[in-house]
Amino acid sequence: MSKQVLIVDDSRVSRMLVRAFLEEKRSDWQFSEASNGQEAIDLAEREPFDLVTLDVNMPGMSGLAAGERILQIRPTARVVVLTANVQSTVRQRAEALGMRFLQKPITEATVARLLDLVGF
Amino acid sequence: MIELLTPLQHDALCEIFNISVGQSAAAMSGLVGEEVSLSVPAMRFCALTELNERVGMNHWRRVDAVVQQFSGTFDGEALLMFPDDDGVELARMMMGSLGDASNDFEQLVNDALGEIGNILLNACLSALADLMGEEFEYSLPNLCSGRARDVLEQRSPDPQGPVLFLHIQFQLETQRIEGYLAFLMSLPSLDGLRLGVDRFLGHLGASMNH
Protein backbone atom coordinates (compact mmCIF):
# COMPACT_ATOMS: atom_id res chain seq x y z
CA MET A 1 0.00 0.00 0.00
CA SER A 2 1.30 3.43 -0.94
CA LYS A 3 2.70 5.58 1.89
CA GLN A 4 3.28 9.29 2.21
CA VAL A 5 6.84 10.10 3.20
CA LEU A 6 8.40 13.38 4.37
CA ILE A 7 12.20 13.67 4.12
CA VAL A 8 13.65 16.45 6.31
CA ASP A 9 17.30 17.41 5.93
CA ASP A 10 19.12 20.68 5.28
CA SER A 11 21.44 18.86 2.87
CA ARG A 12 19.87 18.50 -0.58
CA VAL A 13 22.23 15.62 -1.41
CA SER A 14 21.05 13.75 1.69
CA ARG A 15 17.40 14.26 0.76
CA MET A 16 18.15 13.02 -2.75
CA LEU A 17 19.91 9.92 -1.41
CA VAL A 18 17.11 8.98 1.01
CA ARG A 19 14.53 9.47 -1.72
CA ALA A 20 16.51 7.55 -4.36
CA PHE A 21 17.04 4.51 -2.11
CA LEU A 22 13.41 4.52 -0.87
CA GLU A 23 11.99 4.97 -4.38
CA GLU A 24 14.09 2.04 -5.55
CA LYS A 25 12.46 -0.22 -2.95
CA ARG A 26 8.97 1.32 -2.81
CA SER A 27 8.23 2.83 -6.21
CA ASP A 28 4.55 3.59 -5.43
CA TRP A 29 5.26 5.80 -2.38
CA GLN A 30 4.70 9.58 -2.45
CA PHE A 31 7.54 11.83 -1.34
CA SER A 32 7.75 15.37 0.03
CA GLU A 33 10.85 17.19 1.22
CA ALA A 34 11.64 19.91 3.74
CA SER A 35 14.96 21.60 4.46
CA ASN A 36 14.24 22.65 8.05
CA GLY A 37 12.09 21.79 11.04
CA GLN A 38 9.51 24.55 10.68
CA GLU A 39 8.89 23.71 7.03
CA ALA A 40 8.42 20.06 8.07
CA ILE A 41 5.86 20.99 10.74
CA ASP A 42 3.95 23.17 8.27
CA LEU A 43 3.82 20.29 5.78
CA ALA A 44 2.78 17.80 8.48
CA GLU A 45 -0.17 20.05 9.38
CA ARG A 46 -1.41 19.78 5.80
CA GLU A 47 -0.54 16.21 4.83
CA PRO A 48 -1.11 12.92 6.70
CA PHE A 49 2.43 11.52 6.47
CA ASP A 50 3.00 7.87 7.35
CA LEU A 51 6.78 8.16 7.62
CA VAL A 52 9.05 11.11 8.43
CA THR A 53 12.86 10.96 8.27
CA LEU A 54 14.56 13.72 10.23
CA ASP A 55 18.06 15.12 10.41
CA VAL A 56 18.97 16.61 13.83
CA ASN A 57 21.41 19.48 13.20
CA MET A 58 19.62 21.91 10.89
CA PRO A 59 19.36 25.68 10.75
CA GLY A 60 16.75 26.98 13.18
CA MET A 61 14.77 24.35 15.06
CA SER A 62 16.50 21.05 15.90
CA GLY A 63 15.18 17.90 14.26
CA LEU A 64 14.24 16.47 17.66
CA ALA A 65 12.01 19.45 18.49
CA ALA A 66 10.42 19.24 15.03
CA GLY A 67 9.87 15.49 15.43
CA GLU A 68 8.21 15.97 18.81
CA ARG A 69 5.77 18.47 17.28
CA ILE A 70 5.11 16.30 14.22
CA LEU A 71 4.21 13.38 16.48
CA GLN A 72 1.69 15.60 18.26
CA ILE A 73 0.14 16.56 14.92
CA ARG A 74 0.37 13.05 13.40
CA PRO A 75 0.51 10.55 16.31
CA THR A 76 0.37 7.52 14.01
CA ALA A 77 3.34 8.62 11.84
CA ARG A 78 6.62 6.73 12.16
CA VAL A 79 9.39 9.23 12.78
CA VAL A 80 12.98 8.11 12.15
CA VAL A 81 15.87 10.32 13.17
CA LEU A 82 18.56 9.89 10.52
CA THR A 83 21.59 11.79 11.72
CA ALA A 84 25.34 11.99 12.00
CA ASN A 85 24.97 13.25 15.58
CA VAL A 86 25.12 9.86 17.28
CA GLN A 87 25.90 10.97 20.82
CA SER A 88 24.18 8.58 23.27
CA THR A 89 22.32 11.51 24.81
CA VAL A 90 20.78 12.44 21.43
CA ARG A 91 19.76 8.84 20.73
CA GLN A 92 18.22 8.50 24.20
CA ARG A 93 16.26 11.74 23.78
CA ALA A 94 14.97 10.64 20.37
CA GLU A 95 13.88 7.26 21.67
CA ALA A 96 12.25 8.79 24.76
CA LEU A 97 10.19 10.99 22.42
CA GLY A 98 8.99 7.91 20.52
CA MET A 99 11.25 8.21 17.48
CA ARG A 100 13.49 5.58 15.89
CA PHE A 101 17.18 6.36 15.44
CA LEU A 102 19.58 5.58 12.59
CA GLN A 103 23.14 6.69 11.95
CA LYS A 104 24.27 8.34 8.71
CA PRO A 105 25.78 7.83 6.12
CA ILE A 106 22.74 7.22 3.98
CA THR A 107 23.37 4.04 2.06
CA GLU A 108 21.18 1.33 0.56
CA ALA A 109 21.79 -0.73 3.73
CA THR A 110 20.77 2.19 5.99
CA VAL A 111 17.52 2.61 4.08
CA ALA A 112 16.86 -1.15 4.25
CA ARG A 113 17.31 -0.94 8.04
CA LEU A 114 14.96 2.04 8.12
CA LEU A 115 12.25 -0.01 6.38
CA ASP A 116 12.80 -2.86 8.83
CA LEU A 117 12.55 -0.48 11.76
CA VAL A 118 9.21 0.99 10.70
CA GLY A 119 7.83 -2.30 9.38
CA PHE A 120 6.57 -0.88 6.06
CA MET B 1 53.39 19.32 25.96
CA ILE B 2 54.69 17.97 29.27
CA GLU B 3 53.56 21.05 31.18
CA LEU B 4 50.07 20.84 29.64
CA LEU B 5 49.27 17.17 30.03
CA THR B 6 50.85 14.38 32.05
CA PRO B 7 52.26 11.50 29.96
CA LEU B 8 49.25 9.39 30.98
CA GLN B 9 46.79 12.13 29.95
CA HIS B 10 48.66 12.58 26.67
CA ASP B 11 48.49 8.87 25.96
CA ALA B 12 44.82 8.71 26.95
CA LEU B 13 43.93 11.69 24.75
CA CYS B 14 45.61 10.06 21.73
CA GLU B 15 43.69 6.87 22.43
CA ILE B 16 40.37 8.73 22.80
CA PHE B 17 41.08 10.50 19.52
CA ASN B 18 42.07 7.23 17.87
CA ILE B 19 38.82 5.51 18.90
CA SER B 20 36.76 8.54 17.90
CA VAL B 21 38.37 8.83 14.47
CA GLY B 22 37.79 5.09 14.10
CA GLN B 23 34.06 5.92 14.13
CA SER B 24 34.62 8.47 11.36
CA ALA B 25 36.56 5.90 9.36
CA ALA B 26 33.71 3.42 9.76
CA ALA B 27 31.25 6.09 8.56
CA MET B 28 33.46 6.91 5.58
CA SER B 29 33.88 3.27 4.73
CA GLY B 30 30.07 2.94 4.68
CA LEU B 31 29.86 5.99 2.43
CA VAL B 32 32.33 4.82 -0.20
CA GLY B 33 32.09 1.05 0.25
CA GLU B 34 35.77 0.38 0.77
CA GLU B 35 38.32 0.09 3.54
CA VAL B 36 39.78 3.22 5.07
CA SER B 37 43.19 3.15 6.74
CA LEU B 38 44.24 5.51 9.52
CA SER B 39 47.62 6.86 10.56
CA VAL B 40 48.79 7.03 14.18
CA PRO B 41 47.27 10.15 15.73
CA ALA B 42 49.65 13.02 16.36
CA MET B 43 49.38 15.89 18.79
CA ARG B 44 51.11 19.23 18.44
CA PHE B 45 51.09 22.30 20.58
CA CYS B 46 52.20 25.33 18.58
CA ALA B 47 51.06 28.51 16.86
CA LEU B 48 48.69 28.03 13.93
CA THR B 49 51.19 29.74 11.67
CA GLU B 50 53.73 26.96 12.35
CA LEU B 51 51.35 24.12 11.56
CA ASN B 52 51.53 24.51 7.82
CA GLU B 53 55.15 23.42 7.72
CA ARG B 54 55.09 20.97 10.60
CA VAL B 55 52.18 18.96 9.23
CA GLY B 56 53.40 19.12 5.62
CA MET B 57 50.42 21.06 4.32
CA ASN B 58 52.69 23.31 2.32
CA HIS B 59 52.89 20.50 -0.29
CA TRP B 60 49.19 20.91 -1.04
CA ARG B 61 48.12 23.28 -3.81
CA ARG B 62 44.86 23.92 -2.04
CA VAL B 63 42.56 22.40 0.51
CA ASP B 64 38.80 21.92 0.91
CA ALA B 65 37.98 22.00 4.60
CA VAL B 66 34.73 21.39 6.45
CA VAL B 67 34.76 23.04 9.85
CA GLN B 68 32.38 22.56 12.76
CA GLN B 69 32.62 24.35 16.07
CA PHE B 70 31.78 22.31 19.12
CA SER B 71 31.11 23.44 22.65
CA GLY B 72 30.68 21.66 25.96
CA THR B 73 32.88 21.89 29.05
CA PHE B 74 35.59 22.59 26.49
CA ASP B 75 35.26 24.22 23.10
CA GLY B 76 37.11 23.90 19.85
CA GLU B 77 36.90 23.45 16.14
CA ALA B 78 36.85 20.15 14.33
CA LEU B 79 38.22 20.24 10.79
CA LEU B 80 38.08 17.75 7.98
CA MET B 81 40.61 18.71 5.32
CA PHE B 82 41.04 17.27 1.86
CA PRO B 83 44.13 18.23 -0.11
CA ASP B 84 43.89 19.25 -3.76
CA ASP B 85 41.01 17.47 -5.60
CA ASP B 86 40.49 14.64 -3.11
CA GLY B 87 37.35 16.16 -1.56
CA VAL B 88 35.69 16.60 -4.94
CA GLU B 89 36.52 12.99 -5.86
CA LEU B 90 34.97 11.78 -2.61
CA ALA B 91 31.83 13.85 -3.25
CA ARG B 92 31.64 12.23 -6.70
CA MET B 93 31.83 8.76 -5.11
CA MET B 94 29.12 9.66 -2.60
CA MET B 95 26.79 10.81 -5.35
CA GLY B 96 27.49 7.84 -7.61
CA SER B 97 24.37 6.09 -6.31
CA LEU B 98 22.15 8.95 -7.47
CA GLY B 99 22.43 7.96 -11.12
CA ASP B 100 21.12 10.65 -13.48
CA ALA B 101 20.49 13.12 -10.67
CA SER B 102 24.25 13.39 -10.19
CA ASN B 103 24.38 15.25 -13.55
CA ASP B 104 23.75 18.24 -11.33
CA PHE B 105 27.18 17.62 -9.78
CA GLU B 106 28.58 21.14 -10.10
CA GLN B 107 25.64 22.57 -8.16
CA LEU B 108 25.70 19.84 -5.55
CA VAL B 109 29.39 19.39 -4.86
CA ASN B 110 29.55 21.89 -1.99
CA ASP B 111 26.43 20.44 -0.41
CA ALA B 112 27.94 16.94 -0.72
CA LEU B 113 31.27 18.03 0.79
CA GLY B 114 29.47 19.74 3.67
CA GLU B 115 27.46 16.59 4.33
CA ILE B 116 30.56 14.37 4.18
CA GLY B 117 32.13 16.70 6.77
CA ASN B 118 28.99 16.62 8.85
CA ILE B 119 28.92 12.81 8.89
CA LEU B 120 32.63 12.30 9.59
CA LEU B 121 33.06 15.10 12.13
CA ASN B 122 29.90 14.17 14.00
CA ALA B 123 30.87 10.48 14.15
CA CYS B 124 34.17 11.52 15.71
CA LEU B 125 32.74 14.16 18.06
CA SER B 126 29.93 11.86 19.20
CA ALA B 127 32.42 9.14 20.14
CA LEU B 128 34.61 11.71 21.87
CA ALA B 129 31.63 13.01 23.86
CA ASP B 130 30.59 9.52 24.94
CA LEU B 131 34.12 8.49 25.94
CA MET B 132 34.63 11.63 28.01
CA GLY B 133 31.13 11.74 29.51
CA GLU B 134 30.48 15.01 27.65
CA GLU B 135 27.62 16.45 25.66
CA PHE B 136 28.58 18.76 22.80
CA GLU B 137 26.56 21.30 20.91
CA TYR B 138 27.67 21.65 17.27
CA SER B 139 27.50 24.44 14.77
CA LEU B 140 26.40 23.64 11.24
CA PRO B 141 29.24 22.58 8.91
CA ASN B 142 31.03 25.38 7.16
CA LEU B 143 32.99 24.77 3.96
CA CYS B 144 36.22 26.74 3.37
CA SER B 145 38.54 26.35 0.41
CA GLY B 146 41.93 27.85 -0.36
CA ARG B 147 45.54 27.51 0.72
CA ALA B 148 45.80 25.34 3.85
CA ARG B 149 47.56 28.09 5.74
CA ASP B 150 44.87 30.66 4.93
CA VAL B 151 42.06 28.27 5.79
CA LEU B 152 43.62 27.49 9.18
CA GLU B 153 44.43 31.08 9.99
CA GLN B 154 40.84 32.11 9.26
CA ARG B 155 39.78 29.82 12.08
CA SER B 156 41.60 31.71 14.78
CA PRO B 157 41.34 35.31 15.96
CA ASP B 158 44.99 35.01 17.02
CA PRO B 159 47.00 32.89 14.54
CA GLN B 160 50.20 33.52 16.50
CA GLY B 161 48.65 32.20 19.73
CA PRO B 162 49.25 28.59 20.79
CA VAL B 163 46.72 25.90 19.94
CA LEU B 164 46.48 22.21 20.59
CA PHE B 165 46.33 20.45 17.22
CA LEU B 166 45.36 16.79 17.19
CA HIS B 167 45.37 15.24 13.78
CA ILE B 168 45.15 11.95 11.96
CA GLN B 169 45.49 11.04 8.32
CA PHE B 170 43.13 8.63 6.62
CA GLN B 171 43.38 7.08 3.21
CA LEU B 172 41.09 5.00 1.01
CA GLU B 173 42.60 1.68 0.02
CA THR B 174 42.15 1.86 -3.74
CA GLN B 175 41.22 5.42 -4.67
CA ARG B 176 44.30 7.33 -3.45
CA ILE B 177 42.06 9.76 -1.64
CA GLU B 178 43.39 11.14 1.61
CA GLY B 179 42.19 13.56 4.22
CA TYR B 180 43.05 14.97 7.61
CA LEU B 181 40.80 15.15 10.59
CA ALA B 182 41.99 17.73 13.09
CA PHE B 183 40.90 19.41 16.28
CA LEU B 184 41.92 22.93 17.18
CA MET B 185 41.65 24.00 20.79
CA SER B 186 42.80 27.18 22.45
CA LEU B 187 44.47 27.31 25.85
CA PRO B 188 41.40 28.25 27.92
CA SER B 189 39.76 25.01 26.77
CA LEU B 190 42.57 22.81 28.04
CA ASP B 191 41.30 22.66 31.65
CA GLY B 192 37.99 21.24 30.44
CA LEU B 193 39.80 18.85 28.12
CA ARG B 194 41.99 17.58 30.98
CA LEU B 195 38.87 16.95 33.07
CA GLY B 196 37.36 14.92 30.24
CA VAL B 197 40.55 12.88 29.86
CA ASP B 198 40.61 12.26 33.62
CA ARG B 199 36.98 11.09 33.51
CA PHE B 200 37.94 8.62 30.75
CA LEU B 201 40.90 7.42 32.85
CA GLY B 202 38.60 7.18 35.89
CA HIS B 203 36.24 4.87 33.98
CA LEU B 204 39.21 2.74 32.92
CA GLY B 205 40.39 2.54 36.55
CA ALA B 206 36.90 1.57 37.68
CA SER B 207 36.57 -1.17 35.05
CA MET B 208 40.07 -2.54 35.81
CA ASN B 209 39.16 -2.80 39.50
CA HIS B 210 36.20 -5.05 38.70
Search tags:
heterodimer, A: 120 residues, alpha/beta, five-stranded parallel sheet, globular, B: alpha+beta, eight-stranded antiparallel sheet, 6 helices
Number of helices of chain A: 5
Q: Spell out the helices and strands of chain A N to C.
A: EHEHEHEHEH
Count of the domains of chain A: 1
> What is the class of chain B in the CATH system?
Alpha Beta
What is the topological layout?
The complex is a heterodimer of chains A (120) and B (210).
Chain A: E1 4-8, H1 12-25, E2 30-34, H2 37-46, E3 51-54, H3 63-73, E4 78-83, H4 88-96, E5 100-103, H5 108-118
Parallel strand pairs in A: 1-2, 1-3, 3-4, 4-5
Helix pairs in contact in A: 2-3
Chain B: H1 7-32, E1 36-38, E2 42-47, H2 48-54, E3 63-71, E4 75-83, H3 86-94, H4 105-132, E5 137-138, E6 142-146, H5 148-154, E7 162-172, E8 178-186, H6 190-209
Antiparallel strand pairs in B: 1-7, 2-7, 3-4, 3-5, 3-6, 4-8, 7-8
Helix pairs in contact in B: 1-4, 1-6, 2-5, 3-4
